[in-house]
Amino acid sequence: MRFGVVRFPGSCDEVDALLACRRFGDAELLWHKDRDLAGVDAVIVPGGFSYGDYLRAGAIARFSPLMESVIEFAREGGPVLGICNGFQVLCEAGLLPGALLTNRSLRFVCRQVDVVVENPDTPFTRACAQDELLSVPVKHTTGRYFAPGVPEEQVVLRYAPGDNPNGAQDDIAGVCNAAGNVLGLMPHPEHAVDPLTGSADGGRLFESVAMAPVA
Amino acid sequence: MSSSALAPHRELGLTDAEYDAICDRMGREPNPLELAVFSLMWSEHCAYKHSKKLLRGLPVEGPHLLMGPGENAGVVDVGDGLAVAFKVESHNHPSAVEPFQGAATGVGGILRDIFAVGARPIAVLDSLRFGELDSPRSRYLFDWAVKGIGHYGNSIGVPTVGGEVLFEASYEQNCLVNAMCVGLARHERLIRSAAAGIGNVVVLLGARTGRDGIGGASVLASAELSDQDASKRPTVQIGDPFEESKLIECCLELLERETLASLQDLGAAGLSSSSSEMASKGEVGLDLDVARVPLREADMEPFEIMISESQERMLCVVEPPLLGELHEVCERWDVRATEIGSVTDTRRLRVFDGDELVGDMPVEALVDDCPLYDLEPSPPSAPLYPSPPPRLAASADLDQSLLALLGTPSIASKRFVFEQYDPIVGSRTVRRPQAADAAVLSLANDGGNGAIAVSIDGNGRRVACDPYTGAVEAVLECARNLACVGAEPLGLTNCLNFGNPEKPHIAWQLTRAVEGLRDACLGLEVPVVGGNVSLYNEGGGGPIFPTPIVGMVGSLPDSAAVPRIGFAESGHAVALVGPFSPGLEGSELEKLRGSLASSLPAVDLAAQATALAELREAVRAGGLATVHDISEGGLAVALAECCIEGGLGAAIRLGGEASDGGITDAALFGEGPGGVVIAGPRDAVEAVPGARVIGEVGGDALEIDGALSVSVAELRGVYEGAIPAVFA
Q1: What pLDDT shows up at residue B561?
Q2: How close does chain A come to B568, measured CA to CA in Å?
Q3: More confident residue, B216 or A111
Q4: What residues of B are in contact with residue A190 (Cβ under 8 Å)?
Q5: According to the model, what pLDDT value does residue B377 have?
Q6: What is the spatial distance between Cα B566 and Cα A165, in angstroms, rounded to a whole number?
Q7: Which member of B423, B427, B442 has the closest CB to residue A110?
Q8: Which residues of A touch B241 (CB under 8 A)?
Q9: DSSP code at position B411
Q10: pLDDT score, position B728
């Protein structure tokens, strides 16, 4: 398994994502000005503040040359995981339904939360059990997911009761596209791959991607 | 020479004697541009003219030191070929005028100091002081300064791993925002700022230059704030963390490729100070052409370009054959790079506007010749600070006193603050805020075997009681926080926040505090690697509490077994260690009761140093689950925090020391250096030298000698609820 981790100017968590991927496979950074995905098997769009996010989170990044290739890769069924700012970028790119709004507190929030695996039948959660609890951190200002009418089967991760940090609709923490090959989530699984730094639960997502598809 | 009240040099903050000295060094009267540059270079902020002589007494040598004072940041060796750079700096006056941008650019500025020596910033800590939270102004400054720090730090991908916030009325007009940054580099990547190589090219990197921050160093940082603060808003800089994040990556790549001969950040006094300091250290001259500087506003005057404090800019020196490579890397990162001058052998800073020479100043005069002043210290004959209003009835019982302390904003949980920061980006953070007394960062992903611990501390209330002992205690507290996670201090940085040093009693506070700092550093054998001085912190209500802030970096061999603040397991033995003689002088309880002492008990530095070493070794031995130092609020607050963090109660038996056999306020709530609460399996606890077992973990309440009993849920409710309630 070769992961490609997108690096935009203003990305913050790309190296963290790279380190997380390397626990489960090979991984390299993909430069925003390139169009070549270098033959990777899965793409991670990491957290941060791409291009400064001064206009609207993810609004500029979605037009970068690399994202054109990522959109094409996703449309062909390639697994694409968007974390935090990456989730925002994938929504802006139209690869995922809905939008991320400013937290109800109007403040940045960083906290360890529990999320529930609602759908273990995706390339990103197949190592998880139904209803498995994962302890992962969130850190964002623009994480309140809003998508009226999003189909229930596309809800992959939900904040555990009482753990919704931003006022997201129906406690939704992570959502996939109809085909199931694109997942966006606000929590940061790349910051939960080592008990030393808090939790290893987030590793389940990278492990899932690295597992050979179920025949 | 001119002596009229409207003389330009006076308007720029220079005395008549200083102006005469400038004319003497120049051999003529300076033109307006030269005068503007001199006024900044000879300001308190750049020249340390009231503190430099005093600071010469601080110890600056140590076995781990790689770069000491004088460089952009101090650097220590942490083994495995890795070096850690760190520095603390103030952004007090800008934050008092415009807290969001003031605090944000405080973070931006200290980050640049760190990557200017070639280190990747890996952690930020902040030390903040505001007035009491029942004041609307203080709530506004606190709320927006925290947002500003989060805005910059979070956006740039550098974790904010720790810090402290205290609230005292003396900071009402003049809040303190001190930011510390820690960076990591391989030894061979470190770079100095001395300009080198006659004929080499001077390149300005980063943002365009605008009118923001013009004269900030002299206007804001070197004079007392007045009621006309709002009119100073244009002198506050505006931050752009996105530009800085590109600048960091670009500079680090240029250093990795060995493209640069030297690198310097543009901070206070902008191009003037960065260029003259590079030239001074390199013993060379520089020619700069301001017409080449990319501008945000087209009609800027040459003097404005020289003194603008626009953020996110760096100055570097490059050998001509490497210019192509420099531009290639900068283009890749979309960082503007403009060749604006060259290194000369003239030892002069010459400023051109195209072909026209518009300024010509001896570098030595700018950087080294500012007159240094002797302070005229004199202890105050009457108390300098009014007594605080009493907030706790004298009849309060022990339960009520403990809950009042836990709910006082200086002691209450700062979750409201640290949840607005990202403490984990970078994948090094082993202990997050409120988990341990110091932040712990693993170096495993960087080729290191161990970890570093960082802490920032200071307590102006205690320094106000006794400047010497208070400063000693600040150093001890910081070192104790490191010892609580098993770290050995490698170096110290400090920021001296004081009032107007031209007043004798402030001069006395400053002198005594620096003596305390010196003696504590000598006692602990920790060198001062750099720092910053912020004077003239006086608003309408008089001087701030004298506030030396101390930041330390330590190393520890193994981060996996670092204990936490919280109690871990029922049945663990709880013990008190360290030379601890708690007293109510300068304590939070004394404040709640409405008074402020005028002295503190003397500290036995040798005993403290020995105890710190013993504690460090005990922690490293690995058997302790819980270690938490006793600071504001005394032993009872420390125990309550262990209970709250661990979600477990404890039964404590201190034994009465009062004449009636009862327990004293001083024993429970008294403060002073040296005390630490530890817990763990009984044999591990008893193996710690000097450990006095005082009880065990268990139950769902904190009970002390049958005299105090509060449920953990109630403790937590008060502790966690106090600050959010202010903003509800």
Answers
A1: 86
A2: 16
A3: A111
A4: 427
A5: 95
A6: 24
A7: B423
A8: 49, 52
A9: T
A10: 84
Asked if B421 lies within 8 A of A52 by C-beta distance, the reply is no
| Structural domains of chain B, with CATH | 563-728 (3.90.650.10)
SS3 assignment for B328-368: HHHHHCCCCEEEEEEEECCCEEEEEECCEEEEEEEHHHHHC
Nearest C-alpha in B relative to A49: B155
Enumerate the β-bridge partners of residue B315.
B204, B264
CATH code of the domain made up of A2-210:
3.40.50.880
| Nearest C-alpha neighbor of A45 from the set A73, A5, A10, A74 | A5
Residue B135 dihedral angles phi and psi, to the nearest 5°: -95, 130
**Beta-carbon separation of B420 and A107 below 8 A:** yes
From chain A, pick out residues whose CB is under 8 angstroms from the CB of B246.
Answer: 9-10
The pLDDT assigned to B609 comes to 98
The CA distance from A189 to A183, in Å, is 12
Per-residue model confidence as pLDDT tens digits over A104-160? 999 999 999 999 999 999 999 999 999 999 999 999 999 999 999 999 999 999 999
| Residues of A contacting chain B (CB within 8 angstroms) | 9-13, 15-16, 19-20, 33, 48-49, 51-54, 107-111, 137, 139, 188, 190-191, 194, 196-198
Alpha-carbon distances of B384 from B150, B412, B505, B541, B602, rounded to whole Å: 35, 27, 9, 11, 21
Packed helices B504-524 and B605-621: angle between N→C axes, nearest 10 degrees: 50
- Kindly tell me if the per-residue pLDDT of B666 is higher than 90: yes
Report whether pLDDT(B3) > 50.
no
Q: How far is A211 from chain B (nearest CA, A)?
A: 24
For the question of residue B628 being annotated catalytic, the response is: no
- Asked if residue B563 lies in contact with residue B619, where contact means CB atoms within 8 angstroms, the answer is yes
For residue B272, the distance in angstroms to the closest alpha carbon of chain A comes to 29
Per-residue pLDDT at B658: 63
Instruction: Select which of B91, B151, B505, B628 is catalytic.
Output: B91
ipTM: 0.96
CA distance A19 to chain B (A): 8
The pLDDT of residue B323 is 98
Put simply, the answer to whether B155 touches A108 (Cβ < 8 Å) is: no
The model's pLDDT over B286-336, given as tens digits with 9 standing for 90+, comes to 999 999 999 998 889 999 999 998 999 999 999 999 999 999 999 999 999
Q: Is B636 on the interface with A (CB under 8 A)?
A: no
**Which listed residue (A32, A190, A191, A207) is catalytic?**
A190
Alpha-carbon gap: A113 to the closest alpha carbon of chain B (Å): 12
CB B534 within 8 A of CB B223: no
With a cut of 70, list the residues of chain A below it in pLDDT. Answer: 212-215
In this model, does residue B222 exceed pLDDT 80? Answer: no
Percent of chain B residues past pLDDT 70, beyond the cut: 95
pLDDT of residue B508: 97
Per CB-CB distance under 8 Å, the chain A contacts of B422 are 12, 108, 110, 139
pTM of the model: 0.95
Residue in chain A nearest B421 by alpha carbon:
A110
Residues of B in contact with A54 (CB under 8 A): 242
Helix (H, G, I), strand (E, B) or coil at A1: coil
Triad B325, B330, B331: Cα angle to 5°:
100
pLDDT, average across residues B463-476: 98
B91 as an active site residue: the answer is yes
Q: How many CB atoms lie within 10 A of CB B331?
A: 12
Tell me the three-class secondary structure of B527-544, residue by residue.
Answer: CEEEEEEECCCEECCEEC
CB contact under 8 A, B420 and A19: no
Q: What is the pLDDT of residues B231-242, one digit of tens each?
A: 555 567 889 999
Which amino acid is present at A21?
C
A95 contact partners, CB below 8 Å, separation of at least 6: A71, A74, A80, A82, A177, A182
* Beta strand ranges found along B91-141 (DSSP E): 120-130
